[in-house]
Amino acid sequence: MFVRSLRSVTHAPRISRNLSSHTKMSPPEKKQKTGGYSSTTCWGGIPGRGEFVRLALEYAGVPYTENNENNILSTLGNPAKIGIPPHFAPPALQLPSGHVLSQTSNILNHIAPRFGLAGELGSRLAERSEEEEAEEKPLTKEERERAEEERSTVNQLVLITLDLTAHDTHHPISSSLYYEDQKPEAARRAAAFRAERIPRFLSYFQCVLASNPATGGTTKCKGKGMFLVGARTTTADLALFHVVDGLLYAFPRRMKTLRESGEYDSVFGLHERVQGENGIKEYLASGRRQPFGMGLYRHYAELDGEE
Amino acid sequence: MFVRSLRSVTHAPRISRNLSSHTKMSPPEKKQKTGGYSSTTCWGGIPGRGEFVRLALEYAGVPYTENNENNILSTLGNPAKIGIPPHFAPPALQLPSGHVLSQTSNILNHIAPRFGLAGELGSRLAERSEEEEAEEKPLTKEERERAEEERSTVNQLVLITLDLTAHDTHHPISSSLYYEDQKPEAARRAAAFRAERIPRFLSYFQCVLASNPATGGTTKCKGKGMFLVGARTTTADLALFHVVDGLLYAFPRRMKTLRESGEYDSVFGLHERVQGENGIKEYLASGRRQPFGMGLYRHYAELDGEE
């Protein structure tokens, strides 16, 4: 358990050399986006889905306390301890009001506008200071509709990345059994996952990135963009970064083949870009990030293959 | 493919005899909540996740066209046909603006306030007509925060119900193989699912329902409420209805034992209540609802058991 102090860095995205020309201009320096959080508690559980929430908190520079007590569900599942309604599983996050939310994509969708991570328009849905409101007109109805659409598009892409989590490749029968008790089934499932699911997923995200008009994309998926929505980092970028990172850890041989095919350059480019973002860069260097190991992404050499 | 005309019924929830006294008063008759949709297109795919979206559309009385062309992904995955970004899988829904959204929970979270299905406060986030706005003060900042929290709490409960979908019990190795090619694995997985997953899920929702203060719940989960959030129907209620319905179809023997235990009376009570809601009642009687069969919920006698 730890609390760290508020970072004072800004979150202007680092612009990569590979971006197409009309996204090369530096965006204006942005104020830190802590979304009203002075600090918060994150019930992360074992390294796994909690990491998607941590990445957003680290990007926003919000200090947080980790609560990873042994039987985390005796708190999260008990209305007398956590409030109404109780929760089914970690991760969970305490909001400034004290209310606790769970379910990874739900937490991210709730905080994304507050942290400037819901796209250019989507992030304008967050409440702003009186000072900011005086400077800027409120959203019109039409703008609000478009902002809600952008926020939901970001959420949609987060959900797709979460669908790919590799958990079931090592626990296809039950998560309450050891891996050792389901090895033959895991071998079959991992083979299908490597052959079909990973390439389908990478192809899909390659097309999303390469068709993004804000970074020179075309409807034929021929661009070189490395932002999923618009030309700024969203929770979807952070989530895709983490899933690709997990796949590189769990299936290094398969991912090497796929990377070297050259078919997914924007996806691997996004992975590299996010590593250098303000907030994320410092987090990765800090030693705070929990290593992959016994959580969602595990490396078993016998489940990997070049194909 | 079909288009049906706009229903003119209202959506005041039917109040069950079993509800605790302070929710027995009839809510005011509500105007139809079509959320600005005069009609829409739903890419539902095979009976499965699309049904969660259909239930919300039917509840709201929004006419929709089903698009279930054979190779649905050749449209949904192609930016030249569907717009930006492309989609990974059905279901998808066209918004009044023309923009298409996918991912079940995302679609539901987007439309829930517009259809009055995001809770009492959460539903106030939707844009209202000028007439309605004149009658009512706009939300204060604090009200908007609480409304966003309620909307996210509804989304959280939707996500938990979707986590329970039974698909992997009959396809634990790969969805691209036939059931017949993964029968031994399916038998092992279904046994674990029946023994652990279903009771854990029903216990959790029983506690959410029985701790809901709006229907007389207590933090010891001793109430008899049948609404997940507040005292009105939300997308979470519709989703839980459908999952319980699917489990009753797929695992009739197991569910009979669990129902007769008397431990999950609020969950089974909600299932019965939702069947009688305006909009849902007519839908179930219409013959439009696709039967369970070869989709998410399948009945294989050898995967069921009383335990």
CATH architecture term of the largest domain in chain A? Up-down Bundle
Q: How many beta strands in the DSSP annotation of chain A?
A: 4
In the sheet with the most strands of chain A, the strands line up as 2-1-3-4
CATH topology of the largest domain in chain A: Glutathione S-transferase Yfyf (Class Pi), Chain A, domain 2
What is the structure about, briefly put?
Two copies of one chain form a homodimer. By secondary structure, chain A is mainly alpha-helical.
Brief descriptors of the model:
homodimer; 2 domains; 307 residues; four-stranded mixed beta sheet; Glutathione S-transferase Yfyf (Class Pi), Chain A, domain 2; Glutathione_S-Trfase_N (chains A, B); Glutaredoxin; 12 helices; Glutathione S-transferase (chains A, B); 4 strands; mainly alpha; disordered N terminus
What's the helix and strand layout?
The structure is a homodimer of 307-residue chains.
Chain A: E1 40-43, H1 50-60, E2 64-66, H2 72-76, H3 79-82, E3 92-94, E4 100-102, H4 104-111, H5 130-135, H6 141-163, H7 167-170, H8 183-210, H9 235-250, H10 252-260, H11 265-275, H12 280-286
Parallel strand pairs in A: 1-2
Antiparallel strand pairs in A: 1-3, 3-4
